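User: Reviewer 2 asked us to show a designed sequence for the structure in our supplementary figure. I'm pasting the structure tokens here. Could you produce the per-position amino acids so we can include them in the response letter?
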């Protein structure tokens, strides 16, 4: 079996897939959910309910506000208790709808039968795209880009390859792995729907070598789905990055400042493909997702089907509570996730995991002088010079930062991971990138 990968940079952190063999379990519905209205890249959704309103599971509570935006639906049934600013995993406060749970009454239009629906022949591309928009689907791998936008191929562009991102290269996370094993046919039908939406006859499902059971399972299933091929990939982080997955699967490199469609690719996450199946075939909005809850000292780590808006505290409780040696709790994986300061943070559409790190792994080593070893340059999958970008950012030399392509940084953390001097390289690069992007936006205005 041939295993493909990208050519430039990358690192090999220990994968620690502790929950790969743990089946998905529905998490108990909490007493209250807090549903943020900015769970996606783009404009926050506009709230259309009021305090005191009764809502059902799957009911629209916030409407997409612009082309790059996404609808938000209630994940529970009950009464709107409050509307106001709430902190999310980023640490910033955003408007949210807080709902007191009363039973579990679903919107009548959602098909809850377990039967798989396969016939997509009568569907038109616009039917699929409209359903995806109505359902509020966004990229579920963490980027949360509105999927409707991704499926709306611009005039003059052509989709030549649909790529399903089933890499899940972050250590510890196994949500997509379990989705592939337990929802394989739904993933395949979702992939067919994406292919039809973008008028493409070829699809590739990229899976890393540490998931041999998923590679085998989906390869067998693909025999029943013309045009879909499983592509086994070597273990290398950050292969789940959109641009690096395209390079690994097709050999094409997305130029600086360009999009995947510019090289004929449309990339969607494995969980997103299943959500597309549910939206189009079951009329089910995106109001729940699979979340891995794990850590080296966690008593009963697992994968859970969680309603959006559930507090992280409920997930921690489900795995046996916080271990005594807990040093940090991360929303996401250890490479690109964000440390949270409170367990009240709600699960959002992009929450792929909750990682509990022990004290021994929770802190950086003391930063020392750069020894000019060049390991950060070798590790950078974007071909950048992280040590230089960090130095320029520290000096606030934004013009040179832009000239050295700081906006191409994908913030993967390979530079920090490879640095023997524990330099906070990414902190400076991220600051420089945000500053340069702000300057570019103001220049365009």
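Assistant: Here is a per-position design you can include in the supplement:
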């Amino acid at each position: 079996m041939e295993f493909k990968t990208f050519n430039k940079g990358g690192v090999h952190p220990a994968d620690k897939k502790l929950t790969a063999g743990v089946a998905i379990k529905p998490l108990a519905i909490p007493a209250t959910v807090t549903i943020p209205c900015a769970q996606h890249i783009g404009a926050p959704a506009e709230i259309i309910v009021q305090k005191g309103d009764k809502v059902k599971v799957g009911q629209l509570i916030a409407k997409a506000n612009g082309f790059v935006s996404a609808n938000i639906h209630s994940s529970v049934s009950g009464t709107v208790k409050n509307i106001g600013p709430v902190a999310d995993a980023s640490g910033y406060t955003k408007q949210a709808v807080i709902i007191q749970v009363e039973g579990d009454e679903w919107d009548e239009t959602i098909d809850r039968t377990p039967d798989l629906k396969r016939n997509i022949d009568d569907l038109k591309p616009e039917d699929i795209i409209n359903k995806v928009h109505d359902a509020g689907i966004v990229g579920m791998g963490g980027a949360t880009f509105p999927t409707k936008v991704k499926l709306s191929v611009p005039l003059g562009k052509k989709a030549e390859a649909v790529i399903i991102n089933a890499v899940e290269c972050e250590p510890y996370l196994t949500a997509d792995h379990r989705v592939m094993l337990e929802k394989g046919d739904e993933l395949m039908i979702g992939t067919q729907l994406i292919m039809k939406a973008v008028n493409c006859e070829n699809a590739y499902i990229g899976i890393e070598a540490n998931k041999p059971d998923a590679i085998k399972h989906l390869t067998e299933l693909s025999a029943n789905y013309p045009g879909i091929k499983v592509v086994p990939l070597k273990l290398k982080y950050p292969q789940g990055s959109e641009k690096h997955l395209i390079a690994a699967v097709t050999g094409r490199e997305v130029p600086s400042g360009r999009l995947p469609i510019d090289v004929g690719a449309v990339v969607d996450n494995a969980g997103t493909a299943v959500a597309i199946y549910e939206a189009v075939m079951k009329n089910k909005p995106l109001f729940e997702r699979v979340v891995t809850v794990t850590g080296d000292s966690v008593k009963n780590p697992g994968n859970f089907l969680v309603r959006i808006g559930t507090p992280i505290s409920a997930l921690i409780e489900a795995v046996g509570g916080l271990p005594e040696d807990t040093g940090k709790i991360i929303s996401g994986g250890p490479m690109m996730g964000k440390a949270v300061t409170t367990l009240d943070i709600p699960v959002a559409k992009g929450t792929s995991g909750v990682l509990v790190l022990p004290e021994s792994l929770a802190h950086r080593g003391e930063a020392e002088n750069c020894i000019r070893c060049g390991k950060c340059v070798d590790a950078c999958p974007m071909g950048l010079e992280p040590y230089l970008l960090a130095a320029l950012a520290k000096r606030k030399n934004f013009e040179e930062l832009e000239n050295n392509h700081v906006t191409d940084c994908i913030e993967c953390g390979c530079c920090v991971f490879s640095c023997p001097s524990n330099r906070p390289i990414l902190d400076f690069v991220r600051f420089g990138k945000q500053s340069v992007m702000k300057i570019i936006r103001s220049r365009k205005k």
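For the response letter, you might also mention the following. The CA atoms of residues 247 and 253 lie 5 Å apart. Residues 375-444 form one domain.
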